[in-house]
Amino acid sequence: MKLLALRLMGPMLAAACSLGASQAFAETKPVSDSHPFHQCASCHSLDTSANAFGPTLIGVYGRSAGTVPRFAYSEAVQKSGIVWNEDNLRKWISGNDAFIPGTRMRHVAITDKAKQDELIDFLKALK
Ligand code: HEC
């Protein structure tokens, strides 16, 4: 009896935990207000592979643009044919809609080189 209950509880607990985790994510700030990723976190989840309003950025460094499964990208990003290396990430965060006109992502403009470096290092480390 106890074993059966445990077996039933396992998946339920797992489901509850993953729900709890994404809710916790939405409510808490994963990075400090002054960290440049703070401007991205409202749309990009740091939850392993979950897509939010934007696609997951886990593993974004070195990935081809527009290739996260089950995310509805704009045609512009899908057809851009770029890979998210340092150079392209820098262009994207300094003015995404100028870099890929027609993107659905809201305009961001991080022009401070030190902030760009901090953000790119952060994105590189998201694995
Ligand atoms: C208002 C919501 C929003 C904010 C804020 C936002 N993004 Fe996005 N992001 C999106 C959406 C939506 C897309 C998909 C764009 C498309 O398909 O045109 C996207 C796409 C991306 C991509 C391409 C990913 C891929 O798989 O090709 C990168 C990289 C990215 N965002 C980085 C960032 C960074 C870094 C920030 C913070 C400086 C940021 N985003 C802020 C919504 C947002």
UniProtKB/TrEMBL annotation:
<dbReference type="GO" id="GO:0020037">
    <property type="term" value="F:heme binding"/>
</dbReference>
<dbReference type="GO" id="GO:0046872">
    <property type="term" value="F:metal ion binding"/>
</dbReference>
<dbReference type="InterPro" id="IPR036909">
    <property type="entry name" value="Cyt_c-like_dom_sf"/>
</dbReference>
<keyword id="KW-0479">Metal-binding</keyword>
<feature type="domain" description="Cytochrome c">
    <location>
        <begin position="16"/>
        <end position="127"/>
    </location>
</feature>
<dbReference type="InterPro" id="IPR009056">
    <property type="entry name" value="Cyt_c-like_dom"/>
</dbReference>
<dbReference type="GO" id="GO:0009055">
    <property type="term" value="F:electron transfer activity"/>
</dbReference>
<keyword id="KW-0349">Heme</keyword>
<feature type="signal peptide">
    <location>
        <begin position="1"/>
        <end position="26"/>
    </location>
</feature>
<protein>
    <recommendedName>
        <fullName>Cytochrome c domain-containing protein</fullName>
    </recommendedName>
</protein>
<keyword id="KW-0249">Electron transport</keyword>
<keyword id="KW-0732">Signal</keyword>
<keyword id="KW-0813">Transport</keyword>
<keyword id="KW-0408">Iron</keyword>
<dbReference type="InterPro" id="IPR002327">
    <property type="entry name" value="Cyt_c_1A/1B"/>
</dbReference>
